[in-house]
Design a protein that fits this description.
47% strand; 126 residues; 7-stranded mixed beta sheet; 4-stranded antiparallel beta sheet
Length: 126
């Protein structure tokens, strides 16, 4: 079965850190660019970060720049989102997505994505 399996969410206090993982099952991520997206209650889904196939290009939404870091380990078929200095406004369900024809653009669009993870809740609260 071709799927992306996410892990690593949870409850954290403001200023804390979490690392989200997105592992591919049944296919290789080596030829796919990856995006991370999030959706807070009552809000539209928004792009958070993306990384190119080679890992040489990364993009972040302005509100997470300097706090979040996206990375990929092709040997482990996994992509990560390291989230530091978390804020209450980061609370959302986070999704990873992959696509062979997905282009990691500064706009963090979601066109060209073939597979989506199941989503993982991140709650930042004291």
């Amino acid at each position: 079965q071709l799927q992306l399996v996410q892990s690593g969410g949870g409850l954290v206090q403001p200023g804390g850190s979490l690392r989200l993982s997105c592992a591919a099952s049944g296919f290789s991520l080596n030829n796919s660019a990856i995006g991370w997206f999030r959706q807070a209650p009552g809000k539209e889904r928004e792009g958070v970060s993306c990384i190119s196939t080679s890992g040489g290009t990364t993009n972040y939404r302005d509100s997470v720049k300097g706090r979040f870091t996206i990375s990929r380990d092709n040997a482990k078929n996994t992509v990560y989102l390291q989230m530091n200095s978390l804020k209450a406004e980061d609370t959302a369900v986070y999704y990873c997505a992959a696509g062979v024809y997905y282009y990691c653009a500064g706009s963090l669009w979601s066109y060209g994505l073939d597979f989506w993870g199941q989503g993982t809740q991140v709650t930042v609260s004291s």
